[in-house]
Amino acid sequence: MPGLDPSVAARLTLTADGLLPAVVQQHDTGEVLMLAWMDAEALHRTLTTGRATYWSRSRAEYWVKGETSGHRQWVREVRLDCDGDTLLLKVDQEGPACHTGTRTCFDDGLLDSVEGTAA
After folding, report:
1. Is 105 a known ligand-binding residue?
2. Is 83 labeled as ligand-binding?
3. Where would a tag sit more exposed on the chain, N or C end, judged by fewer CB atoms within 10 A?
4. Which positions, given as ranges, span the membrane (predicted)?
């Protein structure tokens, strides 16, 4: 299977482990669903199949979101940030995005914050 387009690969700024964080967002509402990791091959698979494919750091293998759970992500858009070190995937999420069974991985409540004062 051919790899990632060299012109795209040249724009990536990978971690020492060869990865990029991928922020995943519901395409129509803007809701942030999850964060995952991709390498060049996962990005290539995502771009060519339209299914979100990630690299599991804990299992050291590729995984297609929803392959076992049925909670698939259909990729609508993939964007690279200005530094080339973070991806944004806009997806159509089927069912919950989080492995805990919730819609988003970011619904566990707000953290307390320190309120600043205006100078």
Report:
1. yes
2. yes
3. C
4. none
